[in-house]
Recover the amino acids of this structure.
């Protein structure tokens, strides 16, 4: 069964009475080159486990199954059960868990399903859960080696932007703090069924063993970052002052000590400068 063939997929859906759900962001890959490439570069091998989010009809799942010791796929839409029973019938090392990736106990799942294995995340993410799903794996410090996901191209550029550039935002700083992100390759909208209105890109986030900057209080650091980027039209001094309730003069002093202009905006600040400011202001 060629699951990258649009006619095959339509026939499969008709056979099981399955209709696509726009609310769940269901766009399935119908390009035979994409999933093998994703599976190959996600980092998994015959001794490791892979956690997949949203298997769809199982195109990527089958490729991961051929490379990893075990694949666990979390799927929200129970209507796909008969479809996946057919398409993954020969994949003995695949387990489907029905649930919401944003609500499931991921720490427990990983410990129970992948004991003693290196774990990699690989998924074609629905656009509407991109940031919350990615940040769960990073912020909860889950025992995963890398997160390889296909996301909307604009989201990929934002998640992988360099701090100090126009595309940088609060989520960029958090991603860079927890991982080493990079865009691997782009995926045109024509590779999906149904075809979305935007192009996609595959990114890989290699989870860091330790952060790239010294931060004594992560909560204070991320509060400052969130405040700085929360009002992008304002200067960083005004945004941080309003966001965390500090006198503007103190924030401007911290900016100066960090080697930044007092009139700088958040996207002009490096992660090192933001970390320095968080430490400086915490010690005032």
């Amino acid at each position: 069964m060629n699951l990258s063939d649009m006619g095959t997929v339509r026939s499969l859906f008709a056979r099981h009475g399955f209709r696509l759900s726009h609310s769940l962001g269901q766009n399935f890959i119908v390009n035979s080159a994409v999933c093998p490439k994703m599976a190959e570069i996600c980092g998994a091998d015959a001794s490791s486990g892979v956690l997949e989010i949203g298997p769809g009809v199982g195109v990527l799942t089958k490729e991961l199954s051929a490379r990893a010791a075990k694949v666990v796929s979390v799927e929200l839409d129970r209507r796909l059960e008969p479809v996946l029973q057919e398409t993954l019938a020969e994949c003995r090392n695949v387990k489907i868990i029905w649930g919401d990736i944003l609500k499931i106990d991921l720490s427990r799942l990983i410990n129970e399903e992948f004991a003693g294995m290196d774990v990699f995340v690989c998924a074609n993410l629905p656009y509407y859960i991109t940031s919350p799903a990615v940040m769960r794996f990073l912020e909860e410090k889950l025992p995963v080696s890398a997160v390889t996901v296909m996301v909307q191209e604009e989201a990929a550029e934002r998640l992988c932007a360099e701090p100090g550039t126009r595309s940088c935002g609060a989520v960029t700083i958090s991603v860079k703090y927890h991982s080493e992100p990079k865009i691997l390759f782009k995926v045109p909208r024509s590779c999906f069924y149904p075809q979305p209105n935007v192009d996609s890109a595959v990114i890989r986030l290699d989870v860091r063993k330790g952060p790239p900057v010294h931060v004594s209080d992560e909560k204070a650091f991320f509060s400052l970052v969130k405040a700085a980027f929360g009002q992008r039209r304002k200067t960083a001094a005004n945004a941080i002052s309003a966001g965390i309730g500090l006198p503007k003069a103190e924030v401007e002093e911290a900016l100066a000590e960090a080697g930044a202009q007092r009139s700088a905006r958040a996207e002009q600040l490096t992660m090192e400068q933001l970390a320095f400011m968080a430490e400086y202001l915490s010690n005032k």
